[in-house]
Design the sequence.
């Protein structure tokens, strides 16, 4: 059961993932569909398969009692079989000898885990799509809205709020594409038998696996992945990478929501402080930040579980199964929180412009220096801008006007040069490259993904194909 301190950080309407009830249902479904697939392939009698299916549908499994049995045996797969065996013994004994035929306890849990992970993947993809849609909408509306870009947390140049939103949207789209591709590889039936060689199923193993995969809506990879977890962990690592992208977005929006910055505000929701009624806390961003904090450690834990001994891990696999759900929970909750933030986000464009104006044009120093290079050379142009930039901040005068005055003192100014300096210090001009970058990203996101490149055979491969 989720604790109170976890629950308030999660979306209220979230579909519960990896619950005890869903684990039990998924494990029972594996046993039922395995029997049906084996009967279809002529491995076990049809009446036995029907009896097993009835038992899995009828049996009532108490989660606490199941955990207690698994604690004693060390195997959740064995624990789930006991109530099914009892039901068969009492009601349909013809299925008893064929229950779990050719399978092993890890097959039950891994396949059930794949079923639950498929549900979690679908929920995460839906949240990411909704958040991406919000970000695209913000990017379209604010493609040319000037704001300060910050480098090492300091004012750097002028960018656009739309460009920042488009960059985050593109990162989420890349994660969505990776998650879909990796899910197609990782969400597979596990049917290896005792040591992964499918000895009991023999020649029927492939047919049974394919039938079982079809019934469950999973992939049939054709091999056991009991202790070879590479495809499975690649999917988990992309979830963690996605969590990193969400954490970056939550941090940026949180910083922009500070009162001293005031460039963004989440939609008002009543009081968010017990002592200070004036505060407008970025609650959804806070929830996203909190949810993404454990993600790197969870990813490291799962990676550490890959060193599983021989044909069945002793503790590593069990730890992986115990911790994997938390990764999905945290990333899904972070995406949902940011989607809620994005849906009501208030963008303070005037405040963004005030921050630019308050710097008296020093954020245009690179562009201003480029205007002066033909006249003063690069070292001279940079020196002049550096000297006048300090004066602009101390005297609260626009940098480009100070440069014009400095040039007049040097006797090197003309009206065209003064006009060029004014243009270089115009925020509507400075934002154009970011606005174009925003539009380019939006166009790229809306176009279909490129086809996978075809590989050209090497010289030796080509010769072998001609002369095998």
Sequence:
């Amino acid at each position: 059961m989720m604790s109170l301190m976890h629950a308030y950080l999660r979306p209220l309407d979230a579909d519960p993932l990896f619950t005890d009830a869903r684990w039990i249902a998924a494990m029972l479904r594996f046993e039922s569909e395995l029997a049906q697939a084996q009967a279809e392939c002529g491995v076990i009698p049809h009446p036995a398969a029907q009896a097993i299916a009835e038992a899995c549908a009828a049996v009532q499994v108490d989660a606490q009692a199941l955990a207690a049995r698994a604690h004693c045996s060390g195997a959740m797969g064995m624990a789930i079989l006991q109530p099914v065996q009892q039901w068969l013994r009492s009601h349909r004994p013809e299925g008893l000898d064929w229950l779990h035929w050719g399978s092993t306890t890890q097959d039950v849990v891994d396949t059930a885990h794949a079923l639950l992970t498929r549900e979690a993947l679908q929920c995460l993809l839906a949240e990411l799509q909704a958040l991406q849609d919000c970000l695209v909408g913000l990017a379209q509306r604010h493609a040319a809205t000037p704001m300060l870009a910050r480098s090492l947390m300091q004012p750097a140049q002028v960018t656009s709020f739309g460009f920042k939103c488009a960059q985050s949207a593109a990162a989420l789209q890349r994660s969505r594409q990776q998650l879909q591709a990796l899910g197609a590889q990782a969400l597979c039936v596990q049917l290896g038998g005792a040591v992964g060689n499918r000895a009991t199923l023999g020649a029927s193993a492939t047919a049974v696996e394919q039938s079982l995969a079809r019934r469950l809506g999973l992939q049939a990879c054709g091999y056991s992945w009991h202790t070879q977890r590479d495809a499975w962990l690649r999917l988990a690592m992309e979830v963690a990478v996605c969590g990193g992208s969400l954490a970056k977005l939550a941090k940026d929006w949180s910083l922009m929501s500070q009162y001293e910055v005031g460039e963004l505000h989440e939609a008002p929701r009543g009081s968010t402080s017990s002592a200070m009624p004036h505060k407008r806390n970025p609650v959804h961003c806070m929830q996203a930040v909190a949810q993404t904090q454990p993600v790197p450690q969870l990813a490291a834990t799962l990676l550490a579980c890959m060193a599983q001994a021989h044909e069945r891990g002793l503790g590593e696999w069990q730890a992986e199964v115990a911790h994997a759900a938390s990764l999905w929970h945290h990333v899904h909750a972070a995406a949902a929180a940011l989607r809620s933030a994005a849906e009501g986000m208030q963008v303070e464009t005037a405040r963004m412009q005030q921050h630019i104006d308050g710097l008296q044009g020093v954020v245009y120093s690179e562009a201003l220096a480029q205007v002066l290079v033909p006249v003063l050379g690069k070292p001279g142009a940079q020196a002049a801008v550096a000297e006048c930039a300090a004066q602009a901040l101390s005297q609260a005068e626009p940098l480009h006007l100070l440069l014009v005055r400095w040039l007049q003192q040097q006797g090197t100014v003309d009206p065209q040069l003064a006009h060029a300096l004014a243009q270089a210090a115009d925020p509507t001009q400075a934002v154009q490259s970011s606005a174009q970058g925003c539009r380019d990203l939006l166009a790229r996101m809306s176009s279909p993904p490129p086809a996978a490149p075809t590989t050209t055979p090497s010289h030796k491969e080509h010769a072998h194909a001609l002369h095998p």
Remarks:
- The chain has a mean pLDDT of 93.
- The CA atoms of residues 267 and 344 lie 5 Å apart.
- The radius of gyration is 31 Å.
- The beta strands are 146-151, 154-160, 264-265, 346-347.
